[in-house]
């Protein structure tokens, strides 16, 4: 296990930023470990979720934002449901992911790419188009054959449609994206 | 039963790989005399990807749909997909709790959302509004031999503050609905463990390992079928069952049915109408075992008679014999 020196690189602003943006008070965490005990992904995390909370209390911005954990978290809400201090831990994980995205340091590039491909499809058609997302993801990620073994199964059971369903209001959906991007630019 | 009208939001997966969930849901709701209307021109709820970008943005993508429901004058929306439901419930929760959040969301929308729509999962509507009695009244068929493990997945009932439905640690609504339909339900310890959610494509091995546990626990519970209420759970457990077998060296062959498909079968609906042919792990045996409730009664009566006629063999001697091999 990595030893982290908690006395150096303490970023007090970061603690403040996460608290404000998530609406949660990380200092309430007393390290009981309930969240980690229930987290189905903990075996894949580089820092278990209770450790992320501790790192947050001690302002370890870099360690947190570079961690895989924040991207591997599936928002299953187990930690939030079980935290005795009523901290919305999953929401903090979500907020950390958002900040990592904003600061352009994403440890799990493929996961982000998959999400982005999903959102692109949504912006373009208004609804998402599963086959298109898979193909686009495979192309962009370089994992050309991801899930290609499932293709025949899906096709023989008539589980896909071959063309996207474009909705009439897709420009309205695209506008939500644009307005949001404008807002972000203004704040920059 | 009083007539109720709901908005029905199927969501993107139900147009694609989960079309059997949509078909069986519509068929069962119709049997239960539920009136539902689809909001015109609905868009994607934003699902998980949107909330990795920004919470206001995510809420806006969901709220656009809630505003459409408001526009057609309805105040409850049914969503079969837990991911859509969570997107709606979170938007609603955030916007009613904070005026400034509500304003920020509405700034992104063409038409503002006034927060007048409650979202419910189809399971919640069946359990709370329609009621177990009404669910059982329509039952005409039995599925003897079927032993079901009800699998809720992670976010259907959690976090409790947002979901506001059933128990977050040991939900029972699906158990009770299936019991009302006369189905043998097994107590299943992994009913709320995560199946790997949307990571199937990107982190396939991780998902295979997680679903392996869910499938094993269902078998341990004595189940020969898993009932689900989520298109992602279904996909991970059914479509990827072959992957699990090849990565984990297992040989699972357990059908994963939407709970609405099981109920539809007990209502005598045709397997085709319930999209049973879309399941990857075949449910043929379950379908073939279906008999009418009368047939089941007759069968049980004959069995009882046979038992009554055959006087119990006198096992006394047998038992008195000491076991030879010991
Ligand atoms: S929400 Fe994320 S961190 Fe919390 S238990 Fe689930 S996977 Fe783990
Ligand atoms: S469950 Fe809550 S209090 Fe306990 S370690 Fe996790 S965040 Fe801290």
Descriptive report:
The complex is a heterodimer of chains A (188) and B (326). Chain A is built from eleven helices and no strands. Chain A has helices at 12-22, 34-38, 49-57, 61-65, 69-72, 78-82, 89-102, 109-125, 130-141, 151-156, 170-187. In chain A, helix 1 packs across helix 7 (89-102), helix 8 (109-125) crosses helix 9 and helix 8 crosses helix 11 (170-187). Chain A is globular. Chain B has a four-stranded parallel sheet. Chain B has a four-stranded parallel sheet with strand order 7-6-8-9, sandwiched between helices. In chain B, helix 1 packs across helix 13, helix 3 (55-71) crosses helix 5 and helix 6 crosses helix 9. Chain B is built from 16 helices and ten strands. Chain B has 326 residues and is an alpha/beta fold. Chain B has helices at 19-31, 47-51, 55-71, 82-97, 99-107, 122-130, 132-137, 160-163, 173-180, 204-220, 231-239, 241-248, 259-266, 284-288, 293-309, 316-320; strands at 5-8, 35-37, 76-79, 118-121, 141-142, 147-151, 184-185, 225-228, 256-258, 291-292. Chain B is globular and about 80 Å long. Classes of the chains: A mainly alpha (188), B alpha/beta (326). At the A-B interface, helix 6, helix 7, helix 8, helix 9 and helix 11 of A face helix 2, helix 3 and helix 10 of B. The complex binds iron/sulfur cluster (2 copies). One iron/sulfur cluster (SF4) is lined by residues 35, 38-39, 41, 49, 73-79, 89-90, 93 of chain A.
Write a compact overview of the structure shown.
The complex is a heterodimer of chains A (188) and B (326). Chain A has 188 residues and is an all-alpha fold.
């Amino acid at each position: 296990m990595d030893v982290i020196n908690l006395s150096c690189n303490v970023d007090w602003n970061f603690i403040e930023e996460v608290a404000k943006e998530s609406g949660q008070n990380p200092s309430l965490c007393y390290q009981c470990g309930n969240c980690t005990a229930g987290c189905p992904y903990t075996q894949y995390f580089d820092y278990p979720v209770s450790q992320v909370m501790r790192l947050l209390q001690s302002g370890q911005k870099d360690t947190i934002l570079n961690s895989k954990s924040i991207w591997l978290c599936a928002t299953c809400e187990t930690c939030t449901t079980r935290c005795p201090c009523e901290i919305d831990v999953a929401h903090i994980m979500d907020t950390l992911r958002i900040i990592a995205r904003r600061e352009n340091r994403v440890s799990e590039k493929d996961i982000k790419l998959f999400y982005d491909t999903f959102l692109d499809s949504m912006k373009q058609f208004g609804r998402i188009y599963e086959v298109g997302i898979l193909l686009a993801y495979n192309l962009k990620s370089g994992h050309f054959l991801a899930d290609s073994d499932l293709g025949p199964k899906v096709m023989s059971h008539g589980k896909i449609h071959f063309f996207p369903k474009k909705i009439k209001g897709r420009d309205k959906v695209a506008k939500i994206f644009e307005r949001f991007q404008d807002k972000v630019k203004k704040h920059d | 039963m009083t007539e109720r009208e709901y908005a029905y939001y199927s969501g993107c997966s139900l147009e694609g790989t989960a079309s059997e969930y949509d078909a069986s849901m519509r068929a069962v709701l119709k049997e239960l005399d539920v009136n539902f209307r689809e909001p015109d021109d609905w868009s994607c709820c934003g699902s998980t990807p949107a909330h990795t970008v920004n919470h206001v943005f995510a809420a806006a993508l969901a709220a656009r749909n809630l505003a459409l429901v408001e526009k057609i004058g309805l105040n409850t929306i049914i969503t079969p997909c837990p991911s859509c439901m969570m997107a709606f419930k979170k938007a609603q929760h955030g916007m009613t709790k904070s005026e400034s959040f509500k304003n920020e969301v509405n700034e992104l929308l063409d038409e503002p959302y006034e927060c007048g729509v409650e979202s419910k999962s189809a399971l919640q509507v069946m359990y709370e509004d329609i009621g177990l009695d009404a669910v059982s009244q329509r039952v005409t068929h039995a599925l003897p031999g079927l032993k079901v493990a009800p699998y809720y997945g992670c976010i259907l009932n959690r976090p409790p503050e947002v979901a506001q439905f059933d128990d977050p640690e040991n939900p029972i609504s699906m158990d009770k609905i299936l019991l009302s339909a006369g189905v043998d339900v097994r107590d299943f310890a992994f009913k709320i463990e995560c199946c790997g959610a949307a990571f199937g494509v990107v982190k396939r091995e991780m998902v295979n390992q997680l679903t392996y546990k869910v499938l094993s626990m269902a078998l341990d519970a004595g189940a020969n079928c898993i009932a689900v209420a989520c298109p992602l759970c279904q996909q991970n457990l059914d479509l990827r069952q072959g992957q699990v077998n090849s990565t984990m060296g297992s040989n699972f062959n357990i059908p994963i049915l939407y709970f609405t498909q099981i109920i539809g079968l007990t209502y005598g609906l045709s397997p085709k109408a319930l999209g049973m042919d879309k399941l990857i792990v075949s449910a043929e045996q379950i379908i073939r075992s279906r008999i009418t409730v009368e047939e089941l009664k007759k069968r049980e009566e004959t069995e009882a008679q046979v038992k009554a006629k055959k006087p119990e063999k006198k096992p006394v001697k047998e038992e008195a014999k000491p076991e030879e091999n010991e």
